[in-house]
Write a structure and sequence with these properties.
502 residues, alpha/beta, Nucleotidyltransferase, domain 5, Hypothetical protein af1432, 16% strand
């Protein structure tokens, strides 16, 4: 496929319909537009599993709007699929006949396992390329997909008929939240998912990832309440359950981060998520940015994986898009890497792989530390952190991007803004290395590092000691001044920086 070709994926989910549009640019997909509408078609199935006239009309209306946007696309450039609701609907052919016409492209109703394959493919495409045993979980409106894979390759795929809409209709139909209702809903979900334990037990995966609506809805609420972003923990699920029970009903529910269109189905979503956590022994699940529609794009590209680290291409793309001075970013990255390697050389708490991972993230943060400079000169670090926290960066998990955004936010200015994160030693060492590198490269040329060493201090009150040769401070007075100011900045944190020879 030639560079510049358009691609589009349409996902007819039980809760939302989604349209992803982009271009294939030198072998990599670039999203240009994303449309999402809460259709909640899964709530329109009657007891005979027929879609109501209202549910069908809502779907047709949405697809007509999508179809207008897709006018002019070639058939080979669009892939549209429907999932669990239309898998169940007995009158789906009646719906699809008109749906195909208004969209302008054929809609395929895919099997649960095919949906699982595409979800894994989409999630893996947006994660680092490493041979890690992954468990991917997607709790949709009427189904839950569980997939085991190794790196980019899915190995075990299954779809279960349990989801946020179905469980809300069944166990919270009156909109009331009680502890007993949640207990019954969790037991029922566990009964459906119980057969998954043998294949998906904790011994078969290293990291759990969550995709799509229910995961995002729960994650948004937890972040708004001050929980760390990028992942969902058992403690977070316990907290949100207590909040739902305290509210007593969906109508009375007032939670920051909770969208109005999610209140009616949050009870079912939380109960299914808790059942999955309990059954599979999950304590923490990373929030993945990829999903079904990204898997469809991979199929359109004829590409289920690419050579090299996708994250490198993402960093380069972000740098180019925001006009970053790449020469200076690489300069800062080289100095920061040199300092961090000295500082971390004696670490016995990390494996070689972990150290390499910390070093890569530090270099990426250095290369992107000025990404917000076109927005503001004085506060560019704040804008840069926001950009990175909200950027679509293929290959990165949300937590990885948040880590880099924290480093960009903290690379200059007061450290008080990172107070909550300064309890993590690895982050402190990365941050110190980056801040010192930015100072040493302040003249935007290669600094003289001969005779300069940065070592971790033996004293628990001191983070590190920076030493230089006797004539360095006299030769570079401005740099020496900035380093003395840096000592004062660290004085206001639990960590300390000492200078020797300045």
């Amino acid at each position: 496929m030639q560079s510049g070709n358009r691609l589009a994926a349409v996902d007819l989910g039980s809760n939302s319909f989604r349209l992803e549009i982009g271009r294939l640019d030198h072998g990599e997909f670039r999203r240009t537009e994303y449309l999402k509408e809460t259709v909640r078609q899964g709530g329109g199935l009657d007891e005979n599993r027929n879609l109501s006239a209202q549910a069908m009309q809502a779907g047709w209306d949405c697809l007509a709007r999508f179809g207008e946007r897709l006018a002019g696309f070639a058939p080979s450039e669009v892939c549209a699929v429907a999932t669990q609701t239309l898998r169940e609907a007995r009158n789906r052919d009646a719906f699809l006949q008109r749906a195909n016409q208004v969209l302008g492209f054929p809609i395929d109703v895919i099997s649960g396992r095919e949906e699982a394959r595409l979800i894994y493919q989409g999630v893996a495409q947006m994660l680092p390329e490493r041979e890690e045993r992954r468990l991917v979980i997607d709790i949709g409106g009427r189904s839950t997909e569980l997939i085991l894979g190794l790196g980019r390759r899915p190995r075990v795929m299954e779809s279960f008929r349990v989801g946020s809409i179905g469980w809300s209709q069944r166990f919270f139909a009156d909109g009331q939240f009680t502890r007993k209702a949640f207990e019954i809903a969790e037991i029922a979900a566990t009964a459906v998912l119980d057969e998954a334990f043998d294949a998906y037990n904790p011994g078969n995966w290293d990291m759990a990832y969550g995709s799509a609506g229910t995961v995002s809805a729960i994650g948004d609420v937890l972040v708004a309440a001050g929980w760390p972003g990028g992942h969902i923990t058992q403690e977070g699920l316990d907290w949100i359950l207590d909040k739902l029970i305290a509210a007593q009903s969906a109508e009375r529910l007032r939670l920051p981060g909770m969208r109005e269109d999610r209140k009616a189905i949050i009870g079912g979503g939380v109960s299914v998520m808790r059942a999955v956590f309990k059954l599979l022994g999950i304590r923490s699940m990373e929030m993945a940015s990829g999903g079904l529609r990204h898997g469809l794009i991979c199929d359109l590209m004829g590409n289920t994986g690419q050579d090299g680290d996708l994250r490198v291409r993402s960093v380069n793309r972000l740098a180019l898009k925001f006009g970053v001075d790449t020469v200076h970013g690489q300069r800062v990255g080289q100095v920061a890497s040199t300092l961090f390697t000295q500082l971390n050389s004696r670490s016995k708490e990390q494996t070689e792989v972990q150290q390499a991972s910390l070093l890569r993230k530090l270099r990426w943060a250095a290369e992107l530390h000025e990404i917000g400079s076109h927005i503001s000169h004085s506060d560019y670090h704040k804008h840069g952190a926001y950009i990175l926290d909200n950027a679509d960066a293929m290959g990165f998990s949300l937590s990885e991007m948040h880590r880099i955004s924290l480093l960009v936010l903290g690379h200059r200015g007061k450290l008080r803004k990172l107070e909550a994160a300064l309890g993590e030693k690895d982050l402190v060492l990365q941050l110190l290395s980056l801040r010192l590198a930015v100072i040493l490269c302040h003249a935007r040329r290669d600094p003289d590092l001969s005779g300069m060493t940065l070592k971790r201090s033996e004293s628990p009150e001191v983070c590190a000691r920076l030493a230089c040769r006797s004539d360095w401070a006299e030769a570079f007075p401005q740099s020496a001044h900035l380093l003395r100011e840096e000592v004062l900045a660290w004085e206001k944190t639990p960590w300390k920086l000492e200078l020797k020879g300045f």
